[in-house]
Amino acid sequence: MCLFPLTVFTAIKLSLVFTFEVTSGASNDDISHKNQGTKELDDLGVFIFRNNESHKVIEISANNNLKVRDSHLALIGNLREITDLSLENTLITELGIISISKLPKLEWLNLYKTGIGDNSLEKIAQMQSIKLLPIGKTKVTDNGMKHLSQMKNLEYLGLRGTAITDEGTSKLTKLVNLQGLNLAETRITDKTLDHLSELKAIKDLWLQKTKISDNSISIISKFRNLKYLDISDTLITSKGIKTLKGALPLCKIKDGD
Questions:
Q1: Which end of the chain is more exposed for a tag (fewer CB within 10 A), N or C?
Q2: In the sheet that 156-158 helps form, which strands lie side by side, from edge to edge?
Q3: Which architecture characterizes domain 141-257 according to CATH?
């Protein structure tokens, strides 16, 4: 699924495509010759991308592949050059995260709609290279946010559809490089915007289907770098929306109309 609109994060991913050589679908002999450890992953239908020059695996995508389990992450954990790993809607759990927690160059880790929880975040937080972290529709709670507060290089954090509340977002104020934050379908209220006011780099913000109201308008209006804002299905009134559009003329605001 699309986790964010065509913003800086999507642009990063699109630019990477032209640098990689996809090997999924290549002969097993060819893959074995390049890296014996990827043969089993290829047999599962996992997409494997290699650097054109070094032929080392730098990206793996297993989205919506219900054959991928914790045991397969041990294979991925041996591929030290990986920068992008997408495991959306797979059967991995907290046990599998241990196997990939030592990947030194990982920048994109997509765990949307997986079985991870707060214990996984403690391991993930040790991976200081991570910049993009979609973990929506998982079991993470407010308790796990204390671990994420250590990830100073995070540029995108996706928490859509989790049990996060205002207490959890209060622990994210140290993420000064955060440019995108997805809090859609969470349990936050206007108190969360008080916490977010410290995140000056925010450009993309998803607040749809939350209890955000007109009381947050004055704070949101101060996000001068904001380029995209989704406030559909919130408690913000038409008057509040008009005020926001006037205060943020360069921001694309999705209000459900």
A1: C
A2: 20-22, 47-51, 57-61, 84-86, 108-110, 132-134, 156-158, 180-182, 204-206, 228-230, 252-254
A3: Alpha-Beta Horseshoe (3.80)
